[in-house]
Amino acid sequence: MLGVICTLLTPSESAFAQTEQQIKTEIQKKLSSNAKVRSVTAAPVSGLYEVLVGNEIFYTDTSGKYLIQGEIIELASGKNITEQRQADLNRIKWSDLNQANAFKSVRGNGQRQLAIFSDPNCGYCKRLEKSLQQLDNVTIYTYLIPILSPDSAQKSKQIWCSADPYKNYIDWMVNGTAPTGKTDCSNPLDKNLAFAKAYGITGTPTLFFTDGSRFPGAVQVTDIEKKFNSLK
């Protein structure tokens, strides 16, 4: 009997859950079939609800009549609540990354770890790689995801199938020497693409740190160093 009692909702909790479900239903009716409402939960502001569409955060009122796009800032602390919530949603488990599907570069003691999802035809990835040459005492895992142009897959396979994938990759990304060689070796590209789809990685470069947090885009090395320092 005790176990049953522990799983029951109070009347107020039940009504609250019902309201969230009603809002979710109403909003989903108004959106296209391609926009999936993942969840509706109470926002930290009275009268507002957080609406998660895909991996994007919106807000709505109790009627579900309006969809609000924007950020909630707590004035007393200056905390960007929406930004923090988005960061939490974007977080992954470092252990979910299969390092066998990446090529690895170790510099110095290699103690600091970083994972990068990259397309060989990505200009921002090239900019990032040039900046990353300044980093030391780091292990970098590079996951190739050919998503940008028709020959991204060919370049990715040529890089992966080479005798030294990291060198071949850097020769292209930093020095401009196009990859050459075979493309018919066993490679992890499909697995990397499946991972990217499952975790909402829609652009390159995308970086992950050991605490699971992600940095999208060609971030500055100073920001990467700052993040590493926060993980100590």
UniProtKB/TrEMBL annotation:
This protein's source sits in the domain of life called Bacteria
- Per the record, the coiled-coil ranges are none
The Thioredoxin-like fold domain is annotated at 107-226
Q: Has UniProt tagged this entry with the keyword Transmembrane?
A: no
Q: Where in the cell is it found?
A: Periplasm
Q: What is its main location?
A: periplasm
What keywords are annotated for this sequence in UniProt?
A: Disulfide bond, Periplasm, Redox-active center, Signal
Q: List, alphabetically, the GO terms of the cellular component aspect.
A: periplasmic space
Q: Which residues form the Disulphide bond isomerase DsbC/G N-terminal domain?
A: 17-83
Q: Does the keyword Signal apply?
A: yes
Pfam families recorded: DsbC_N, Thioredoxin_2
State the PANTHER family in the record.
THIOL:DISULFIDE INTERCHANGE PROTEIN DSBC (PTHR35272:SF3), THIOL:DISULFIDE INTERCHANGE PROTEIN DSBC-RELATED (PTHR35272)
Q: What protein family is recorded? A: Belongs to the thioredoxin family. DsbC subfamily.
Purpose = Required for disulfide bond formation in some periplasmic proteins. Acts by transferring its disulfide bond to other proteins and is reduced in the process.
Give the protein's recorded name.
Thiol:disulfide interchange protein
Organism in which the protein naturally occurs: Polynucleobacter tropicus
